Amino acid sequence: MNSTWSRFNIVSVVLGLSFLYLPIVILVIFSFNASKLVTVWGGFSVKWYGSLFHNQGLIDAAWVTIRVGLISASVATVLGTLGALALTRYTRFRGRMLFSGMIFAPLVMPDVITGLSLLLLFVAVNLDRGFVTVTLAHVTFTMCFVAVVVQSRLVSFDRSLEEAAMDLGAPPVKTFFQVTLPVILPAVISGWMLAFTLSLDDLVIASFTSGPGATTLPMKIYSQVRLGVTPEINAACTLLIGLVTLGVIAASVVNKRREVQRRRDEQAAQRA
After folding, report:
1. How far apart are alpha carbons 136 and 21 in whole angstroms?
2. pLDDT in tens, 10-61
C-alpha cells in the first residue's frame, strides 16, 4: 500500500468525515420518521413534510430567509467584486491599508461583536429593525468572503487581454464587461454562492439585527429547538440542506462547463 494512504490515514479520513457528516445523515433519516419521538424510529413516513408545509410560521421564516439571502448575496457580490478590483488593480493609494482592513475585518470578527456593532449603528441612525436591517447586516459580513474569492482569481488574471481590448478602442467599462468579467465569472459565481449559503446559515447576526416580521428560518428553528426538537424541524433542516447542496452542485457544474469551454477556445485559438 502506498505510504500516502496508510491505514492510519484512511482511519483518520473516515473518522473525520463521519464526525462531519454522520449527524447530518442521522437528521435526514429521522426527518422520515413516522414517530413523534425524534429519537425513536417508528417507520418510514413523509407526513412531517406535509405538516411542515402547513406550518405557517416556518413557511414565513423560510421565505424571509430566502429573500434576505438572494438580495444580500447579490449586493455583496457586486460590492465584493468592486473591492477586489480596487485592491488588485490599485496597489498604491492613500488609505489602502485601512480600506483593506475594513473589507476583511468581518472575516476575523466574532459574530457577536459584528451583530452588536450593527445593532448599535441601526439604533444610532434611528433605523427600525426588520427586513432591511437584516439584509444590510448580511451584506456587511458576506461581502468580505466574495472579495477574497474574486481577488484570488484577479491575482492570476492576464491583464494583457484588457490592454489588447483597450488598444482596439474598447472603453474601460466595455472592456470589463466583455473581457474581464467573463474570465472571472466562475469566481464571481462561487462568491455569490458562498455569500448566499452564509446568509442562509446565519443565526447570531440576524438575532441582533432582526425585528418584527423579519424572523429568519435559523432563528425560528432555534427558538423551537429550545422547547424540544420536533420532526417538523428535522424536515425543515433537511430541505435547507438539500437547497444548499443543489446550489453547490449547480455552481460546480457551471464552473466545470465554463472551464471546458475555455480550454476549447484556447485550443481553437492555438490551431488558428
Report:
1. 32
2. 888 888 888 888 888 888 888 888 877 767 777 888 888 888 888 888 888 8
pLDDT digits (tens, 9 = 90+) for 102-154: 888 888 888 899 999 999 999 999 988 889 999 999 999 999 999 988 988 88
Class of domain 56-243: mainly alpha
Secondary structure string (H, E, C) spanning the chain: CCHHHCHHHHHHHHHHHHHHHHHHHHHHHHCCECCCCCCCCCCECCHHHHHHCCCHHHHHHHHHHHHHHHHHHHHHHHHHHHHHHHHHHCCCCCCHHHHHHHHHHHHHCCHHHHHHHHHHHHHHCCCCCCHHHHHHHHHHHHHHHHHHHHHHHHHCCCCHHHHHHHHCCCCHHHHHHHHHHHHHHHHHHHHHHHHHHHHHHCCHHHHHHCCCCCCCHHHHHHHHHCCCCCHHHHHHHHHHHHHHHHHHHHHHHHHHHHHHHHHHHHHHHHHC
Domain range list for the chain: 56-243
Burial class (CB in 10 A: 0-12, 13-18, 19+), 26: exposed
Cα atoms in the 13 Å half-sphere on the side-chain side of 125: 8
